[in-house]
Structures are given as C-alpha cells and as structure tokens.
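Late entry, evening session. Most of the bench is empty. Finally got around to the prediction I had been postponing all week. Sequence below, unchanged from the version circulated by S.P.
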Amino acid sequence: MRTAAALLVLAFALGGCGDGKRAAATTTTAATATTQAQGLHIGLVGPLSVQVPGAVIEHGTLAQVAGDPLVVVAAGGRAAERVRAVAAADQVGHYAVVGASEKSPPLPNLAGLVFREDEAARLGGVVAGLVVAEESAGIPRVAWVGPQERPLAAAFVRGVHDIVPGAVVLRAWSADRPAACKEAALGALARGATIVMAHGGLCASAAIAGAHQQNHPGLRLSDFVLPDVPATQVARDAVGGVYHGGEDLVFGAASGAVGIRRLDPRISPTTAVRARAAAQELASGRPPSG
C-alpha cells in the first residue's frame, strides 16, 4: 500500500512538473511575442518592402499609418500628393517620399528620397547595348523616346556606347503625351531601332507599347531603380534615433538603389544575366564590361 501510495504521489508530482513546464513555455512564448511586438512603429504606404531589426512595420493607407514616428510613402500615388499636408499638420511624426523631391518648400519633418536618374539612364543604355550586341546585324540602332531631357538622353547614350561604341542612338523627341510618345517610338523603330527607352509615366508606357507592337523590347527609367533600398535606409536611421527632414537624400548605384529591378520579357535570359553583372560593376565603380 505504501508503495502504491508513493507511486501515486510521484505520478502527481511528475504531472505537476509537466504542467509547470507547459505553463512556463506558454509564459515564455507570450513574453517573446510581446518583445517582438515592441519596437519603433514605421508605416509604409504603397509597394514598399522593409525589414529592419528594431522596427515594427505597418502597411496601410496614409490615414491609417499617419502618426507613426516614421511614415514612408511611395511616389506616384494619391498618398504622395497628400503627404505634405499631413506632415505639416503632424508636430511629432516624420515622413519620407520615395522617388520624389520634397525640398521645395522644405518641411522639417518631410524628406524626399530621390534616385540618381542619370545613373539609371546609363544602366538602361548598358542594357540596350547588350540587347543590340546580341541581336542586331550591321550597325545597331537604339532610341531614347520622349520629351527633350538631354542630360538623361546623354547618360543613356554613354551606357549604350559602354557596350557597343559604334551603335547609333536615335533621339526620338516628342511631346509628353502618350499618343505622341508612341508615334515617336514607332518612328524610331521604322528607322532601324531595335529597342527603345523612355523616362516614365504614360509616355514610357505608350512608347513601350509601340515597341511591343513591333515585337521589340522597351525600357523605362523605373526598371533600374530599387525603391526598397532608400526606404530601408531611412527606417534603419530612424531606429537608430536619426530622422531626416527639410532635404532630399540622393541614392545611386553605389548605395545599391540603382540596379536591375525588372527587364522586358522580350530580353533573352542570357542578356539578362549579363545586364545584372554589368549593374554590379557599375555599383562597384567599375565600367560595365558587358
């Protein structure tokens, strides 16, 4: 009887220990979840992806995340048009817009995160050069399409000639209207261009549509900028206690913000691999070898 009683007591004791372990595990899990939920709340508006230790990332509309210590907004949407008014009314939070200048007039809690568009245009030229080096017979021709943005067009030409020094670069200037941009692209293709590049917006979409209509690839500047890079940088700074405002922060190839974001599916996998290698060379400060 004593043996049986002892075994019964031991069984209850072991059962209690098991419950205690489970209780301790539950408490630990809850504590871990609480710890993970703690951190600097950073709101993201638009197609941005950020992962920074010490930050709690919240995706939502501008109205939903306004009031967070830092709110990062992607340019091009309605939120970017309203963020200046929201920032002016917020005496505590800080705001940043990826892809647009916000320094005129400056607000102490609003920063623009802008890209080195000349570097992006040069990388686009490198890709165009790689495409025609692979596909063209005779004297290769490429085209820059759209309004007269001569510095960007010149950077594009430099990139093309990095790969194919003898290539002809057509400047198909047009009004900043979709129909005009598409007509300019079709005109350049009729003159022998086998790939076109445009700055952005509806003009670029129309120019690329014209190229696709003739079964040729097209490029736009946004193909070569990586918005998550500057968004991550300002988030990391904020976690470290540093906030930016009243200025534009410029990001280029050296920061990793200029690179291959997407490529036209009409560009061959072989050329795509060479293009990404060239982008890495530019980021490291070396001329692209192709």
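Two things to note before I forget:
The two ends are 88 Å apart (CA to CA).
Residues 1-36 have pLDDT under 50 and may be disordered.
Will write this up properly tomorrow.
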